Amino acid sequence: MIRYEIGIVETRNVIKTILDTYGYDFRDYALTSFKRRLEHVIMNNGFKDADGLIDRLTNNKEYFDNFLCDITPETTEMFRDPSLWRTIRDEIIHDITKGSTKTKLWIAAFDSGEELFSLAVLLKEAGLLSEVQLYASVISEKTINKIKSGRIDARELEVNDANYVRFNGKYNFSDYYKIENGQAIFDTSLIQGVNFIKLNTVYDNVPGGIKLALFRNQIIYYNQILQDKVLNQLSNSVVPGGYMVLGVKETLENTGVSNRFTLYNDLEKIYKKKTT
């Protein structure tokens, strides 16, 4: 199959259609990566070209939720970067869960479930799952339903299992899922108390009082303007002394919030919010 390539003008026409029709603003997404995602959407949905996508977006409002799900890159792996998860477990989680009120933890990047289930497993094995309040950012109802179903890509089980072993989990990774009709179904009791927060592209509705926010591999899809907007929202949500985790190739340096945080762990890109 010949890969469809969308032009810059067509890309901007799609972005304008979405903004005018739904109020979602993708203008400050990194253009190259957004173009690739649009090509993925066009090919997977059988559209002839960008005009076909624009026509569907304009004339079928129910399709937009599917579009939002498809335009968002999936997380793909559980316990991705196992050393990070070990650091959270061994150095951070018990410290931030001290106190009489439930600690708020937030999967802040748009997640397809892998980060959320990884954190839930970590908390369960630490005996803290019932002691915290979990929040998860989503951009579409379709994503919420997918996560709540517990269905994970069976093709990723091998890499997920290897990551869990490197995380030094207490049990076997297979203890957390079952196979039904050739599909892997994760234990959904782990996420029963999760608050799913449906956010738009500029994070207008963030939770407050967060002690740990995982925002990994997200700002690489933003330009500098959107990075500063979203990171400011996240910074306001994290309490003094709380932590923000970025992807290993991301940084708070040269952003509008860099002076609010200290670098706690450079290798894992963990930042701690200043208390004064």
How is the topology of this model organized?
Elements: H1 8-22, H2 31-44, H3 50-59, H4 63-71, H5 82-96, E1 103-107, H6 114-125, E2 132-138, H7 141-149, E3 151-152, H8 157-167, E4 177-180, E5 183-186, E6 195-198, E7 210-215, H9 224-237, E8 238-246, E9 261-265, E10 270-273
Helix pairs in contact: 1-3, 5-8
Q: Note poorly predicted spans.
A: none
Q: Count of DSSP E strands?
A: 10
Mean pLDDT: 93
Helix content: 25-40%
The best one-word shape is globular
Query: Can you tell me the CATH topology of the largest domain?
Result: Rossmann fold
Which structural category fits the helices and strands? alpha/beta
What is the number of helical segments per DSSP (H or I, 4+ residues)? 9
Strands side by side in the biggest sheet? 6-2-1-7-8-10-9
